[in-house]
Amino acid sequence: MGRQNNLFARNHTKGVCILLNPSSPFKLSSIQVDPEGRFLIAKLTIEEKYFFIANIYGPNNCHDQGDFLKALSQQLVSKTDTSKVIISGDWNITLNRTDKLGGLPWKATSSINTLVDLMKELNLPDIYRELHPKSKSFTYVSKSLNLKLRIDYFLISRSLSCDVKQVEIRISIAPDHNAIFLSIGVKNDFSRGPGLWKFNNTLLEDNNYKELIIF
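^ thats the sequence. predicted structure below, dont judge the formating
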């Protein structure tokens, strides 16, 4: 089993987790934990590059959402490089009317405005909506309420958006939420040259070495 970083809560309204595949080339450098059980922020390194991956679970009432977004913003600014951030999870916030079908009419709330301000301040676009501006796909469905919402999404640093290969909403085994999927490439800034190899021909004078050579 790979590396697990869990943040548990006593009920189903909190708790997040980050899993790393054991064969992944990423290495975990550090982890930031929200004492309220709302987010984890992991610093991962690969080939001398680093990224900050955050998993969040936002509250579903307006007052708590404001406190959550303030705490998350403070951690992002003080503990990360905001040009190398990928945030995913259940925000419990629909960013615009396209992200809601059914129920009461969509309207901007203080929580929505706070999140939009955070996105603008830290330059963290909703990459799914940028790549699928007219999509009517949703991540949360309630048959009893006749309601569909897109409340699970990625916010990523603008500097990483050009490296995104794919972002999708997929069917999952969860009872009422679909999965969100992001594929992003990691560029190698260090291109290899033609190289030069020199053979030490004095080794050919060593009979033991010559016996190891396979033609």
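The mean pLDDT is 88.
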